[in-house]
Structure formats: structure tokens, C-alpha cells
């Protein structure tokens, strides 16, 4: 691949190819040289943008997070429903089961022992994503479809459990373990007055992880 003379396009190529290699080979088994060879660029072109493989991963994650945020905002604007609860159910099914959103979960598992990585993921849930969920919950309080007195807190704990605790890749769980945790989340949210974890969401989420090979090797 010839070096692109436009820096922003070169950067995009590096991130795209690196994400693909991290997913296929694993982060630990992918070297900077692997990335250089796949891109067909000079070593200088890579190091002009990044000092290390870890910096590349960080940029890949930020790019994916931004893409997910943009998709979420688009769904909020365009999803039509009878009330806020139904709207949130539809949005969650779309986001939580989107293959692009979860395509590099296997890469994340290699970083689970990195405290900075874990803290960043938790902060993104609480600071970036939860306020969007909470706003829809507030609308649900107004139309009567959601009855919680704690929309902000419900949104935060919901996303922390869904994105981190339930993720089978991060904790090496099998399908049945993951299913039980999704069902627990469903029950818990109902008791909190926020009945937004649908049976369809549970089914789609468990199937998605299966298709991605996200479960541990100890069976279903």
C-alpha cells in the first residue's frame, strides 16, 4: 500500500488496519512490525502518529467510542415509539447488539488487568453514555412509562452492569452464565421501575456473543 500523502487519511488507515489485526491475532500477539507490514508504510509513517502499540490501541478505542456515541445520538433523534420506555427499549436493542460496537471486545479482554483501561471504560459509561439514557428516562417519568425517582443513578448502574459486568469476553464466562446475568439485570431494572431489558435484547445479546466467539470454552 502506497503511503498516503494526507496525514488524516494515513491516520485512518493505521487505525483501521490495527483494529483488524488486534481482533484477528490478539493485541499481545500483534507487533508494530505486523502493522507496518500490513499497511505497506514506512516505520517513520507509523511513529509520526504513535509512539507505541498501546497508543494505537487507545486511539482505536477512542475512535470506536466516538462512532458508538454518534450512532446512539442518531437513534435518539430518529427512533419513533409510543412512549419513552418503548423508545429506550428499541435503542438499547440496536446499540447493545450492533456488531461493529462489539467487534473489538476480544481485544479489550487483553487489557482487563490494566487499571487505567478499566477506569477509562467505567468513566465513559458514567460520564458520556449514562446522561443520554437518563434523559430518556426523565421523558418516561413525564409520560408515565418509567416510574423511577432516580433516572441518573439507574442509567449509570444499568450501563456499568451491561457493558462491563455482563460482558463474557472480559470475565471469561460461558453462555449460560451470561444469560443468567442478563436475566438478573432484567429483573433488577423492573424492580427499579425501569422495565427496559426486553426478552429480545437478552436473546440478541447472547446470540451476538456466540457469533463472535465471546464465550469461554467450558460449554454453553
UniProtKB/TrEMBL annotation:
Keyword Magnesium annotated: no
Assigned keywords, A-Z: DNA-binding
Gene3D superfamilies assigned to the protein according to its UniProt record, in alphabetical order: Tetracycline Repressor, domain 2
Residues in the DNA-binding region annotation: 31-50
Entry-linked SUPFAM superfamilies: Homeodomain-like (SSF46689)
Domain of life (superkingdom): Bacteria
Pfam families, per database record: TetR_N (PF00440)
UniProt-recorded name of the protein: TetR/AcrR family transcriptional regulator
Organism of origin: Paenibacillus profundus
